């Protein structure tokens, strides 16, 4: 009888341990690879065309949608002096005109507003969640952008520095490859959250690239009393 009781106690302990282990596993956030990240993000990243008054092409870049109503972010140097901004979504839809809501030339951050979706189309834009904590040294990140007209690419790297001063500006440094045309695109963490916006490359170091931190984007939103939740 005592042996049966002891065996039952051991079984209960094992089951309890398994339950605790399962709960711990359930609390661990999902981590995605590059294929997953691109698949869940591509519809919220768009190709930017800067047009002159005569409709000729002046510049190109990338933007990322941050709310279902069409609030978006990009790099200021992409839209600087733009007369008209046109965006092409991954599904081929062309959205125009895109409005610049605010920018900071010092940080290179800019916020945009896409036009409301047309009636009969999707009721809301696909968008990406914004990370609310700082990135860390060595953390894996992914960059998405349009270096080839209407053809997005994804690159993978790490955070080389979460907060480096470059020419008087605070920047995230990453080894995720950046090509011309990817400026303004998102840098995503392993959970698919926007951790920064592509700004450019660091000429003094090979394969180290510059990223605008999301605190700079939030500062622009706060200055205009814009909330992502109510955008």
What this model shows, in words?
- Helix content is 21%, strand content 37%.
- With 231 residues, it is of the alpha+beta class.
- Among the domains are: 87 residues, Thrombin, subunit H (Beta Barrel), CATH 2.40.10; 74 residues, Thrombin, subunit H.
- Strands 5-4-1-2-3-7-6 form a seven-stranded antiparallel β-sheet. Strands 8-9-10-13-12-11 form a six-stranded antiparallel β-barrel.
- The longest helix is centred in the N-terminal third of the chain and has 26 residues.
Tell the overall outline.
Answer: globular
Strand order of the largest sheet: 5-4-1-2-3-7-6
- Multimerization state: single chain
Radius of gyration: 22 Å
Order of helices and strands: HHEEEHEEEEEEEEEEH
GO molecular function: serine-type endopeptidase activity
Pfam family, one: Trypsin_2
Protein name: Trypsin-like peptidase domain-containing protein
Family: Belongs to the peptidase S1C family.
């Amino acid at each position: 009888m005592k042996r049966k009781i002891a065996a039952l106690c051991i079984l209960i302990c094992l089951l309890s341990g398994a339950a605790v282990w399962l709960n711990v596993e359930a609390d661990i956030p999902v981590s995605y690879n590059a294929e997953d990240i691109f698949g869940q993000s591509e519809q919220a990243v768009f190709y930017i065309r800067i047009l002159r008054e005569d409709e000729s092409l002046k510049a190109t870049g990338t933007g990322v949608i941050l709310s279902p109503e069409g609030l978006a972010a990009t790099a200021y140097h992409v839209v600087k002096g733009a007369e008209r901004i046109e965006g092409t979504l991954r599904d081929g839809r062309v959205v125009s005109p895109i409005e610049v809501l605010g920018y900071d030339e010092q940080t290179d951050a800019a916020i945009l507003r896409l036009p409301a979706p047309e009636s009969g189309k999707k009721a809301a834009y696909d968008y990406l969640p914004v990370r609310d904590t700082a990135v860390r040294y060595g953390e894996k990140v992914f960059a998405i952008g349009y270096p080839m007209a209407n053809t997005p690419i994804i690159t993978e790297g790490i955070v080389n520095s979460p907060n480096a001063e470059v020419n008087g500006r605070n920047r995230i440094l990453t080894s995720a490859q950046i090509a011309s045309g990817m400026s303004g695109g998102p840098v995503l963490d392993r959970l698919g959250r926007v951790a920064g916006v592509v700004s450019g490359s660091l000429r003094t170091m090979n394969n180290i690239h510059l990223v605008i931190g999301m605190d700079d984007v939030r500062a622009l939103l706060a200055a205009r009393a814009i909330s992502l939740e109510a955008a």
